[in-house]
Amino acid sequence: MEKIIEWLVNAEGRTSLVYNKAADYFQADEEFSAFIRQLAREENVHHTLLAQVYDTIKGRKDLPELIATISDATMKELDESLAGIENGIEAGTLTKSGLADCMVTIELCECNDAFAYILETMKSRFTAFRTAAINIHMHKIAVVRFLNSYDEFKTQLERITHFPDIWKEKILVVDDEQDIIDVMRGILSNDGIIETATNGKRALEKVREKYYAAIISDVNMPVMDGIDFYKSAAELYPSIRRRFMFFTGRLDHETTDFFTAHNIPYLQKPSHLKDIRMMVRDILTATP
User: Fold this and answer.
1) Which long-range contacts (CB under 8 A, 24 or more apart) does 181-187 make?
2) Which residues fall within 8 angstroms of residue 280, CB to CB, at 6 or more apart?
3) Which of 44, 64, 162, 203 could join 16 via S-S bond, C-beta 3.0 to 4.6 A?
4) What is the per-residue pLDDT across 182-200, written as a single tens digit (0 to 9) for each?
5) C-alpha 257: how far from its chain's center?
6) What integer pLDDT is reported at residue 199 of this predicted model?
7) Domain 170-284: which CATH class?
8) Residues 139-185: pLDDT tens digits?
9) Burial class (CB in 10 A: 0-12, 13-18, 19+), 69
10) pTM for the complete prediction?
11) Domain ranges of the chain
12) Which tops the pLDDT comparison, 128 or 257?
């Protein structure tokens, strides 16, 4: 386990350095260079997060045994792609299409099934792995969107859209009305895995167990209401505030003042389906 994570740390660090060199090389094309530079920054974030995890697990004996590993062929393929970029830069022969080819190969190496499995195995134990998984998922989305904006990169786009998601978004719907839960499941099923809770206490238990990319909560519920759920969740995980929205029929002055004071998005029941979907997607696409 340690050796694999150590290799991942080094791979992310080297990829960041090579992408920065490529951004310098293509600096005459401001848009393309800026995109490569952004990839370099993201790779450096991945490197830092994984390095933190490596320092945490080094020497530990209680790590789960892996049943899948990153193959020597995958490691070699990544090394050769990075070397190809560097050699092209030194020779002055690197093209945008050539860089895109190498970039897709690198992304496929980093997001192969074994890497996805390692992240999935470890993210439940270490918060940094959760953050890395989310960031890499968003990194993939950025690559796909950029390639899709250029007709010349259609071949590379076809390759990259087939690699596995290492983070399937989870959305938590908290409401004691089954009709509301059914509606939310119907309109948001394309945006992630929908999980539910019928009161704030059960929702808090779920939040302790796993990461949710978006949380949609009612206010009036038995056992624990939505406001107390929000406060308790935010006390446990301060960053969770950015992933909350309320969908409620209760909108007295006290409640709306609370939402405003804490900058929490909300909608009143009933609302247009489009508005609900747009608000949830705004949360899903925000920086984690």
Assistant:
1) 183/273, 184/216, 184/247, 184/276, 187/273, 187/276, 187/277
2) 171, 188, 191, 214, 216, 245
3) 44
4) 889 888 887 788 999 999 9
5) 31
6) 97
7) alpha beta
8) 777 787 788 877 888 788 777 765 555 556 789 999 999 988 988 98
9) middle
10) 0.57
11) 2-160, 170-284
12) 257
Residue linked to tokens 């929205």 = 245
Distance from first CA to last CA of the chain, Å, rounded? 27
**Which strands, in side-by-side order, build the sheet including 193-197?**
193-197, 170-174, 214-217, 244-248, 266-268
Integer Cα distance of 77 and 264 in angstroms = 46
